[in-house]
Design brief:
Elements: E1 12-20, E2 27-39, E3 45-60, E4 64-80, E5 82-83, E6 91-108, E7 112-122, E8 126-138, E9 144-160, E10 180-181, E11 187-188, E12 194-213, E13 216-229, E14 237-238, E15 252-266, E16 271-282, E17 288-299, E18 303-314, H1 323-329, E19 345-359, E20 371-384, H2 398-402, E21 411-421
Parallel strand pairs: 1-21, 5-14
Antiparallel strand pairs: 1-2, 2-3, 3-4, 4-6, 6-7, 7-8, 8-9, 9-12, 10-11, 12-13, 13-15, 15-16, 16-17, 17-18, 18-19, 19-20, 20-21
């Protein structure tokens, strides 16, 4: 979904995960729940998401599996109504619930697998429908694995019916506007009030995993995506001169990335070292990259401790401007946006994860589980200053508009998990 980006947000996350598997050896069932919370400095808004999820799977014979799942997102929070220099003075509250169902039908061979999947998601102002497939094969010798994946999404997004208005005249959607759906989960226009736009998303990925030595593993993955359709945030307004029209960004976005992952097992230390590097580019001229270092250490046979550190940086989209310059100089061509994920971003992350594994060799753990796994994870996110225009003297620039009040620690991620296998 184009409105949901994986790039860094200012966030405080507490995730509570609970998973359990049914007693049948060939069947699987998992339930989980997570809570996501974000708080911006001052009156810049915040976000809370409650995410319950349930998945059930069964093996149909030796070579076929069927998985179905359901998840929901109950979202509430507040956000600045207009992207402008003094945007800290007004925030609009909102709430919404997203429901999503998915299925996967898999076929397994001795050295290969093929999976077909589908997803349907619906919320107040967005409908997503996705079909896809993934194929994987181990080449002779089982030292090389090749995986191919493709998916196509038929999405729709609700927008204010702006008819033939020019971009600088268009109005933004508000929480009072009604976005109707038909019985077939298709958006229904309300002439003069709201209109539904189609979005087509094609995604492809190929990866090659190679065992270089008995203790060294390398993976190279290439990702590509083409998005066609309305990609502006229908609620976001941008102060351009004396007006505050709805944000306007291109309807076409092509993007790709290449990722390299290297894992080295260290037998004498009973641990492993990890290295990840990724390069990203798109037709909006957002160019980014990140590097991550990690280390995993076993303590005995049941305790695993992981550490990681990551650095990320991206350039701004070609049409992105500091709010000060939108107000004083107008737009950079036809398009304008207040999306901080299209601004220049520099961030760092440091974190650790502790995993405690208990296996019932002679009798079940807690009298119930064959295996019980407890996870505790914490990450610190730092958003670092990036000047949008180093030649300008603007005290209300990007750093003041997007950073969390100048605090060094921008976000905290806490995760608690409990996984049980019957």
């Amino acid at each position: 979904m184009p409105r949901r980006s994986p790039q860094g947000q200012l966030r405080v996350v507490i995730a509570l995960l609970l998973a359990a598997h049914v007693a049948h050896a060939d069947d699987r069932a998992e339930i989980s729940s997570s809570v996501f919370a974000e708080q911006r400095a001052g009156d810049k808004g915040g976000l809370v998401v409650v995410h319950p999820q349930a998945d059930v799977g069964t093996d149909i014979g030796k070579h076929v599996s069927l998985d179905i799942g359901y998840s929901a997102d109950a979202v509430s929070g507040a956000t600045a109504t207009v992207y402008q220099v003094d945007a800290v003075t007004a925030a609009t509250t909102f709430s919404d619930t997203r429901h999503e169902g998915q299925f996967a039908l898999g076929f397994r061979g001795r050295r290969s697998s093929l999976t077909f999947s589908g997803t349907v998601g619906t919320e107040r102002d967005y409908i997503s429908r996705q079909v896809g497939g993934t194929a994987s094969i181990d080449l002779p010798g089982r030292n090389t694995t090749v995986t191919l994946g493709y998916s196509h999404s038929f999405d729709q997004v609700c927008d204010k019916d702006n008819a033939d208005l020019m971009p600088l005249e268009r109005r933004a959607l508000t929480g009072d506007d009604e976005c109707k759906k038909s019985g077939l989960i298709i958006g229904k226009d309300i002439p003069g009030t709201t209109i539904w736009h189609d979005i087509s998303i094609d995604t492809a990925q190929v990866s090659i995993t190679q065992n270089l030595t008995p203790t060294l593993n390398l993976q190279i993955a290439v990702f590509g995506q083409i998005i066609e359709g309305f990609q502006s945030n229908p609620y976001r307004r941008v102060r351009v001169g004396g007006n505050s029209p709805q944000e306007h960004i291109p309807d076409t976005r092509d993007r790709w990335s290449v990722t390299a992952r290297l894992n080295r097992y260290l037998p004498k230390l009973h641990g492993a070292a990890h290295f990840n590097a990724r390069f990203y580019d798109d037709t909006w001229r957002v160019v980014g990259g990140d590097v991550e270092l990690g280390y995993s250490q076993y303590v005995g046979n049941s305790l695993l401790i992981k550490f990681r550190a990551r650095a990320y940086q991206q350039s701004a989209a070609a049409f992105f401007k500091d709010a000060f310059f939108y107000e004083t100089e107008s737009t950079a061509g036809e398009y304008f946006t207040g999306d901080r994920e299209l601004s220049p971003v520099r961030s760092a992350l440091a974190g650790a994860k502790l995993t405690l594994i208990s296996v019932g060799d002679e009798k079940p753990v807690w009298g119930l589980f064959d295996k019980l796994q407890f996870n505790l994870k914490g990450d610190l996110l730092f958003l670092l200053p990036v000047a949008a225009d180093p030649l300008s003297d603007n005290p209300m620039g990007i750093d003041n508009q997007f950073l969390n009040g100048g605090n060094l620690i921008d976000g905290v991620v806490l995760q608690l998990g409990l996984l049980g296998n019957y």
